[in-house]
Amino acid sequence: MQNFVFHNPTKILFGKGTIPAIGPETVAFATKVLLVYGTGSIKRNGIYQQVTDSLLKAGAEIVEHPGVQSNPVLSHVREGIALAKGQKCRVVCAIGGGSVIDEAKAICAGAVVDHDVWKFFIGKKSVTSPLPLTTVLTLAASSSEMNSGMVITNEETRQKFGFANKKLYPQTSILDPEATFTVPADYTAYGAVDAIAHVLEFYFTTQDPATPVQDRFMEGLIINAMESCDRVLADLNGYQGRADLMWTATLALNGLTAAGLGKVGFPMHLIEHSLSALYNVPHGAGLSAIIPGWMRHQSQSTPQRFARFAERVFDFRNGSPEERAQKGIDALEEWFQKIHSPTSLADLNIPKQDIQQIAENTVALAKIWRIPDYDSERIQAILAGC
Amino acid sequence: MQNFVFHNPTKILFGKGTIPAIGPETVAFATKVLLVYGTGSIKRNGIYQQVTDSLLKAGAEIVEHPGVQSNPVLSHVREGIALAKGQKCRVVCAIGGGSVIDEAKAICAGAVVDHDVWKFFIGKKSVTSPLPLTTVLTLAASSSEMNSGMVITNEETRQKFGFANKKLYPQTSILDPEATFTVPADYTAYGAVDAIAHVLEFYFTTQDPATPVQDRFMEGLIINAMESCDRVLADLNGYQGRADLMWTATLALNGLTAAGLGKVGFPMHLIEHSLSALYNVPHGAGLSAIIPGWMRHQSQSTPQRFARFAERVFDFRNGSPEERAQKGIDALEEWFQKIHSPTSLADLNIPKQDIQQIAENTVALAKIWRIPDYDSERIQAILAGC
Known about the structure:
2 domains, six-stranded parallel sheet, globular
């Protein structure tokens, strides 16, 4: 195990009926609230009403910043910052999934500084005293509700960049599984893929050969993501499946899985961010298209690690490490297919002749993320197997 | 899964060489420090020197409160409170295991109020604004370094009472596995038993039949506690084993294992607290003496749960649920014996004729802990099987 700092101050309120707590939790910081949300589904399913009722009852004054899109864009972040500044908002409340919460974090960081918010993403400025943030989660996927990271796409430069800062943990996040009942089957599946991908990134990129505590935690989360997703897809309004998937996705990237692993990379997210930036595919769909190909590439270097994965997650106990590794990857790929998530570039209608262009975009990001071992040649080799 | 609130604000600094951070982490709150510790082992192994060097370098003024004993006693807590008040200490730094940290929490709570500290334990007063607390952990066992609970023994009434309050999480805890190298084999084993017991309490007392996310997390922790304890007992100075055991014990009772389980009890700790109060046995030794007997008693009500335990922890997949349950309990008992931790009252030299007296003590505690289903008859039946 490697040295680490773990400090996750986010307060989680989990369970049915918890949304009406958002008002008191938010006005505990300030009454002038910037309310950040997406494109209207929360108005159809009643969550918007629940949140605004609670905020108003608690004495909040609400300034609305709707219209956050999946893969949130910089221009809309800038609009939110201008609104928060102009209206002197002192707290941000986000209702949505990872995209909305990520944009809200960027607004929290940008609303208190004079420079452009993108400077945080390209490493030119550091976050100082962001506005406090509360969230109501509506999609089990990103764990943004309990971590300090965010990802924003710059439409001008076609770059999808992310970064994390310890001052950007939400103060309070409300996780009501019923708020995810209206998420359709495809986006439920993409969310589960995203959660699994977060764990796989750590599991397969740690350089530490001995992390048994973290390993069992991660293996359990992968199994639970798959099992709970299966249950949700069989019954979209099943509370227990939604609850298990929601909590699993939160735990998958709240800092606990990575604590002690040492330096880890995000190679699958790295490549997927280019797919999202170039083709605007859903994040989870882009991930599952890349994961099997990346795993086959990576397993040649560390077959023992992939054999452990196969044994612990899929109970494959027989055969050589290489054989078990292969069987484990195949099984995960088959599961992606079962939940109708893409498993190849072809499934996303991305032609193979685009691989070089994708790789160039990815290499630029790899420099920012400091993953120097992902050069164009390697990325093209991986994508050729996707 | 049941509704829950999870909010653990403790900052963990984990790994070798982290002790010198204690000074800055502590004086960030105040410079007048009450330093709480035990009976001298930290002076022999150099940890006391490391901590005081760091505190002084950071500008702290140190007031010492040594002499905390295993199963910390109320009279010594009161002395610490009087010292903190008299010397106007504004932060407490604890160096030790669960006993020291528990006593430090009680001092933090009691040093800012005019009434006697025991009123917190008997539910007559609530914690308001305790002194901040930093810790340097020297024993993998209690998780007090990352939770809000504490247990103190009132020598006058012979009661060992515990309670938790969300304001009593340590601000910062430093977990350096090397600080546990000098813990001898027996107390290392008792610490592992304590960590396992914390998980077992939750695992077997939850009333919720569907908690798969928590279950796999708990099962992983039990396996890791056993495996890492085995490795430490084979090499007391083995860093990785010490590190895995330390982090496992912290995760076992930091709120995450219980989050979502609904109401859980502490029946094994309940009974053990009476053993400690009456016979002053080491906490972990008392626990392992009770656990197999309690499990055999409880498994008659919920054999499926015990069968799952046997399957997941010991890989027993064959036979009826009752058979697997029995095999799992036997296997855990055998492991306790392997690490030389007691598995019966006889191993603790406690005669069977004391059972009624123990049960009376336990029943009094059961009322405070609101575990009404543990009456004298039931406790005596359990103890008869221990």
